Fold this sequence. Notes:
mainly beta, 8 strands
Amino acid sequence: AFTYRAFSPKSSLNVKQFTAKYDKKSNTNQLKWTLETDKQYYGAILFRKDPGEADHSQYSPRLPNQMDYTDKSIKKPGTYSYYLKIYDTLGNVVKSDEVQATVPESK
């Protein structure tokens, strides 16, 4: 008997750098990422975990061809954790490492 197996081309996507930084002036977290190659980059979805939360949840819609994001909904002090799911044009998904940004107590 013949068994059909779907062939998934190897993704060339790898997250090279992913950073999160709190900006006091605008009270936002600034997220930026770079990829090893963006030749097949289709977009990213951002996941966020708020201070005191147990799990990450989807925070953004697909960010088409974006390489940065400003999180404007910082509601309380503490450490916010983020990761990305990067999508390529072949349908592959790559998950980034987590990054964190700490929002200090307001004085």
